[in-house]
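Q: Protein A?
A:
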Amino acid sequence: MVRIKGLVRTFQVVRTQLQQGIPEDRVAEFRRSVRDAIDTVEAICAKQGASPSELPPQSRQAYDFLKNLDLDNLPLIHNTALPSQGKSRPIQIKNVINTCDGFIHRLSEQAFELEKSAETRRKMAHQIQGVVDKIEAICKNAGTSPSMLETPSRNAYCFMKFLVTNDNLERHVQTLCKAIRLASSLRPAQEKRKMIVQFAPMRKIYTSEPYRNAMLITLNEGWIDADDQVLSAIFRSVFQGKSQTDRRVISDYVASEGFCAVLYDLDAMAGVIECDAKGRVFDLDDVFEKVNREYFGGKMEKPLCHWNRTLTLAKFGHYQPSRDRVMISVTLDDENVPAFVVEFVMYHELLHKKHGAAWSNGKRYVHTPAFREEEKKFKYFHEAEVSLKQLAKKQRAT
């Protein structure tokens, strides 16, 4: 079987760019990169006397997607639609990623000390806050905001900002310590290398990298609310290979409210820019006005609505009460998604704003019976549910 490293990653990058739209001045570059990827795959296959149809399933799907992409009809972002040419360009700040990586390493190395000592956590938070403040000051002096950082730096900034917001650092440390203990208890007896476990902002849900003297296991920050059962499934998959049971536990959690909510919160840390409500296909301000008029009698106070840059598997919207913000995944900003589906997700999130949360036996519930009853009043409720399940299935497959 032919294996081509980086093909699936290329597909993911291309898909993300298509979801967000291609700037007019980068169309030629985008087309060239896709064609180069296709040519590379076909050349490697020919050299090995094989065809792209013999690639592993994920790689074959990635190749087919790129091969069948209509490069003459791309979703474009017109330069005239941007707020201002001077502020629309990504801003570059040196060492943001390296600094973030340093904190990730220190959090792992000092996890148990941080767990025991509130003062140690306070000092760590102060140091992270200092970096966040410097980044924000540089952005302010440049007449822009962290939302305009280049994507890798933006993700690193969001992660650091997330850690010093609310009680997220304590939450991070508690789960990190739990994960380290579980990894140690589940490691094979013959595994003598140092075990390093860390949480980080990343596209993959987890990675394991074996080195000569250490095994590095990196978990997506989305796992920071995961329980022992879920974390154990990850470590068993790393040490023993994926069983059907553990694969389902992992998959179910990745699609859960908890995992996705963390990703939404992370992405929101950079703030939003004026045009974030206006997508390539749908304008969320218009969607809100329609839903508000038809289902809330026009009396719902407007939250901040914007497209979230997180491509999700099953959760396509999120309401953030602390900032009165509705975030909808850019996955839905697609001409193949019916308008009623976007309207339903908006309606669902506005119901969260209306109903809030209820507590019972120490647990917090956001989908109360009253919530579910009102949710069914959406005109195309069943059709929207079916469409979202189909989209979620498609997302998982790719």
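Q: Protein B?
A:
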Amino acid sequence: MIDLTYQILIAVLLDLILGDPKWLPHPVRLIGWFAVRLEAIVRRLIRSERLAGLMVTLSIIIGTGLIAWLLLWVAASIHPVAVDVLSIVIIYTCIAARDLAVHAIRVRRPLIEGDLAEARRRVAMIVGRDTERLDEQGVARATVESVAENLVDGVTAPLFYAVLFGPVGAIVYKAINTLDSMFGYKNERYIRFGWSAARIDDVANFLPARLTAPPIAIAALLIGGRPVDTVRILVRDRKSHTSPNAGYSEAAFAGAMGVQLGGPSYYFGKEEPVEKPLIGDSLRPIEATDIGKAIRLMFATTGLFLAVMLGARALGEHFWLQGGWTL
């Protein structure tokens, strides 16, 4: 059986090569499909929206973990190679670095070419805000914010749980994150129903978000960014976000790139914008080329984070096996 470290490395390599092919059945789509149908059933049975949401959330999370464990157990009973392959595939489907970069590039191209309408249409695929009123800076800012926030949701947090708990940990995290993206909206339909999904997601991302921020400063140094400003803005603005976790990566990105994120955003067709706190210093106007810088920063941070996590795992295994730190 292949060691978990090599399973994770192979899974990351597969993500960098393949991304998220449309022809491949993706667990996130299955999780979402079941969640939608379970929501409809439970809403009819339970009047309390908070309780109904909690029941759906826990059922999907626990069910995902049990199904993944059962499939791995069956694979292990067939052949060691089968469980290796399944473990790698599960971890691979939980990582979205290439897909995140591809979506950001798809926004960058029309924005550079001056096709604002197409850039708005494409950025709408990766952000939850209304995009019809965004100017060129607004589209670039929304894309950079998406890369910064999804670095944790789509890359480092799944890796964190894969290193700690293997493929089952990675897919359970992905279920948590998927439920938050489906139910965690503060609109009339989900403000109460999605409360538990949002809170569980906050807890699951607490450590990954904070562990991701320091490598961003080192990554900034590697790609010619602003490592000192990364630390300064991170310390100053990490809590200037409605999310208890997203502010860490967004503040670090803003400092590393020398741009300002946040500001007014429109949601659900409302005329009045949501005034988000400003993150970072406005040293210069944000522009389309910053999307490419954000992508490079994301990949560099991913490599550093993975190295640190796997190194920590190796040290932990050595300590556990040797009963001390002797080499």
